[in-house]
Design goal:
This protein has five helices and no strands. By secondary structure, the protein is mainly alpha-helical. The two termini are about 85 Å apart.
Amino acid sequence: MPPPGGEADSSSRDASASTSSAAHALVLEHVHPATRLMEKRRQTFDAQAQLDAQRAAFEEKEKGFAEREAIIKRKDLELQENLVRFGKFLQENDGKRARAKRRAADEAQSRLWKEAEIETLAERLRAARVRDETASAEVSKNARYASYLESVLEHVSGDPEALSGFTEVEDILARHATLAATNADLIRAHRSFANDSERVRAETAAYVEEKKDEALTLNNEIARLKKTLEHTTLLKQETARARDGKLKTEATRKMEHGRVCFATEHLFRRVRSRSAVKYAADENPLERLRVIGEYMSDLDAIVKQRHKENPGLTD
């Protein structure tokens, strides 16, 4: 942690440094470029030294923070271990208490189940007695059907042209049970086929609606893409026209620049040939224009001086 007043000291140092930098800038405007370059290098070295000092202080602080972080992590790990041990202790106690409560609840539930089972068995016994009485009554009631089946069996066995193959009453009952089961299977199959037909019809209708919506969405997307294509085409054409105009403008500028350079070179050669000052053969157009300007200024001064000395001179 920085000492109190450190920010104020750094602010005052920054203010004094900015003031001194402004003063140096004012002074350096009127000194030789080499001296200015040396002063700039000195300021750079000073700034680098300050930066190195700040980096060292930052590394020292970072080291202290790392040590504090390691201590905090170690304490946090110890606290977590103690918390885990305490949690295990609480879980063991809760487990023991839960097991004891569960055993008591199991015993009470087992007692209730046994009582319920006794009541269920008693009810089943009463129901069995009722079923036995009902079955006895049903047997007495169906005795005439047994006699009818026996007479049918005697009639079939006495008829040599019968091809039923019934030799006992159980065969007739078995055939009836088979036909009843087959009829039940056919009814279930019919219901299943009807349900499948309704399901397929509903799925077909939903599929048709979904495809209609999808076709409408695709048509909208196609229309949007067509508009996007038209807009992109127009934008491309505008971009091409702008590019052509830019290329044309650039070509015009290059042509004008070439003309200016050619005229500058011609005037520069005439100035060098007529001027008493030995100008260097510089290839920079700006430097040539500066030489031409100086020559024209000197020529204008000479003309003005001549007119001043000879007021009546018109040429």
